[in-house]
Amino acid sequence: MAWDTTRDFGVASTMADASRPMVKDTSRLEFLERYIPYWREARQFRAYSIMLAIVGVVMLFRIPIIAVPAFAAAGYFHVRGQQKQWYSQGAYAGHRTIMGADI
After folding, report:
1. How far apart are CA 42 and CA 48, in angstroms?
2. pLDDT, tens only, 17-62
3. From CA 29, how far away is CA 26, in angstroms rounded?
4. Among 7-11, 15-19, 77-81, 97-101, which is the least confidently predicted range?
5. How far is Cα 55 from Cα 77, in angstroms, rounded to an integer?
6. For the chain, which residues make up each domain, given as ranges?
7. Which SS3 state, helix, strand or coil, does residue 103 take?
8. CB neighbours of residue 98 within 10 Å
9. How far apart are CA 30 and CA 22, in angstroms?
């Protein structure tokens, strides 16, 4: 018995009513413009944390009461810099993915 393609062929599909597109198509310039501010802030926070750590070490031997807030602020800016760098990873680490589907 031959295979009857008119009877055994079926199509399955799913419709999704999305309020926004599932894949946002942007140019490289728009992509960089979105992540460059995060990258700049990460570099600023890193500089602040290094500067405050140096101030804390210097003040540890001169005015120890000022060293405690300096070290606390250095830790705060270090963590904030890591967070901003995590946000900016897409700009220079190449995490963009292009997916294709053969239909």
Report:
1. 10
2. 656 665 566 677 777 787 888 888 889 999 999 999 999 999 999 9
3. 8
4. 7-11
5. 14
6. 37-91
7. coil
8. 5
9. 18
